[in-house]
Amino acid sequence: MADIIQLLPDHVANQIAAGEVVQRPASVVKELLENAIDAGSTTIKLIVKDAGKTLIQVIDNGKGMSPTDARLSFERHATSKIRSAEDLFSLHTKGFRGEALASIAAIAHVELKTKQATEDLGTLIEIEGSVIKNQEVAVTPDGTSLSVKNLFFNIPARRNFLKSQTVELRHIIDEFHRVALAHPDIAFVMFHNGSESFNLPVGNYRQRIVHIFGTKSNEKLVPVEEETEVLKISGFVGKPEFAKRSKNEQFFFVNNRFIKSAYLNHAINSAFEGLIKEGSYPSYFLNLTVDPKSIDINIHPTKTEIKFDDEHTLYAILRSSVKHSLGQFNIAPVLDFDRDNNLDTPYGYKDMRVANPTVEVDRSFNPFKEEQQVSRSGQVSHTSRKAPAAQWESLYVGLESKGTKDEHSFSNMEFESEPESNTLFAEDKDIKSNQTTYQLHNKYIISTIKSGMMILDQHRAHQRVLYEGFLKHLTIKEAVSQQLLFPLTLEFSTSEMDVLRQLKEDLEHTGFIFSSFDTEQLEITGVPVNVPESEVSIILEQLISDVQQEVPDSNFSATDLLVKSMSKSLAIKTGQSLSAMEQEHLVNSLFACKEPSVSPNNKVTFVTMSVDDFDKKFM
Question: Which of 400, 253, 377, 395 is nearest to 318 (CA)?
Fold first, then answer.
């Protein structure tokens, strides 16, 4: 039988590796930024066009490469970071496998310009699909400039899988934030389609967080500092009252490398237990420094997951450190007794000596001795101490005896009763007696039908009702707004404001009225009818979270997502008690919808059980 196993050509192997390393334009951004940091750069520029589909360029002022190194950098598993297998457990650099540039060059048009400070001229290399088209001497500044154009030009199937520009740009910004937060000692600048998106100067860690997430984030940060033999922790956590509905502000860095760890994330959530609402997530920006020999980075192609030797110890130290910081800065509630400020010593008497009180006693006083009183005529009269008793008896002269009745007696008194408070729908006795719906555990509504029984999920059903109502307002663009007595000012980060700016027109069609729309805050003067003012910030946060987390495809409709988010925020929650009239109104409203059987997220709103189903249960 003939041999069937053969070695893959290099260009095929590079494309297979590219499938692991380069998933989207954001993956290229991550690899190029990390290479620039490993080169010892102090200033790094990122230039992006069309969310990375047309151009991704990273310019740094690092040490550059020689012509030979520039050529070898595009070979598979060619690296300057490691020499032996033992070096994998003492890594202090970002990249080390030598697959990034080879994978990128296999699926894009790459142009590299690099020059060392000791040389007069640099090197220019052009590659298309792993094939080197040109290499020559070039005039270029110190450092390296690497341009990646037409990503996935030779793999159209992979290019078709890319999402819309909004989504891909969000992923690029996320990677940019992760790298920039890990290195506040390096200046970063980002341009998209010719406009400057971020300009992050060199500073401390707090300043870097404020430059990325807005000036108002400064007051939300609580410092965390802890150093042990096993682990050193530094960074910040957000105050519980500023917890968000998304996980966009959660960052772990191990030895200046961004990682994802559900186990360590659970430690943070455990420290915040009882301080934040359910469905909200705390913000944290934590740097963990450990011995490189105690971790294994080489377990995931993107190097975002790390294997720890002793995870249980790290968990305990991290949890206790965060709880200590929250308590140290009076963030966590403490057990204390109320004290009346009126009992405090006045400031003016604080340093005065207390004088002993004096008591005067009339030693000649005798209550049984007659008291002499001198009248105006000069006569002395003797009165007894019991005389006032007779005067008190005179007060009761003229009262009726106990046997008589008076119109003012207590038996004829009437008391005012408090007015009865009605529910949203006034209930009549006839309605109560003819009630056809029942609420189960404040979650389900049970209603009788001809064939048997219908069980309706009140939260999903109300979502469907609100969804079709909001969609109608958006379609006809004639939503009714209610004016606020005082304008409502809300603050968001720069990236969150970009999301709201894209949805501004659709929000106005639902009934929102914006008086100002700045870079980090907006002012609202009108909201949709039946939307309470206290729910506005929750609705907008939920909307931003949905846009950022759901990762919609290229056919994504901002209007549809907006309506889904608003209906989810305003729908009747599980656990809310409804009156009989409200239950019946919800059932009737649901079946007046065009699609009553599913919620806006395509989940079942009700189920039915026939009488035959019940009969089978009793067989």
Answer: 253
> Do 263 and 315 form a contact (C-beta atoms < 8 A)?
yes
Q: What does the DSSP assignment read for 111-172?
A: EEEEE-TT-SSEEEEEEETTEEEEEEEE---SEEEEEEESTTTT-HHHHHT---HHHHHHHH
Which residues partner with 55 through β-bridges?
49, 149
Q: How confident is the model over 354-364, as a mean pLDDT?
A: 82
Give the rounded distance of the alpha carbon of 404 from its chain centre.
Answer: 76
- Is the pLDDT at 590 greater than 70, yes or no? yes
Spatial CA neighbour of 75 closest among 132, 20, 23: 132
- What letter does residue 43 receive in the DSSP assignment? E
422-438 burial, b for 16+ CB within 10 Å, e for fewer? eeeeeeeeeeeeeeebe
Position of tokens 């009339």? Answer: 362
Give the span between the Cα atoms of 173 and 199, in whole angstroms. Answer: 13
DSSP 351-393: TPPPPPP-----TT--TTSPEEEE-TTS-EEEE-TTHHHHHHH
Q: Which domains does the chain have, with CATH numbers?
A: 10-200 (3.30.565.10), 205-328 (3.30.230.10), 430-619 (3.30.1370.100)
Rama region for 77: left / alpha / beta (φ>0; ψ in -120 to 50; rest): left
Alpha carbons within 13 angstroms on the beta-carbon side of residue 552 total 17
- Distance separating the N- and C-terminal Cα atoms of the chain: 65
- Give CA–CA dist 151/197, Å, rounded: 22
| Contact indicator for 176, 47 with CB cutoff of 8 Å | no
Span 65-110, pLDDT tens digits: 999 888 888 887 666 666 566 555 556 666 655 678 888 888 899 9
Locate 551 and state its tokens.
């990762």
3-state secondary structure at position 169 = helix
Q: What is the pTM of this model?
A: 0.68
**pLDDT exceeds cutoff 50 at 554:** no
The phi, psi pair for 535, rounded to 5°, reads -95, -5
Token look-up 């035959």 returns: 612
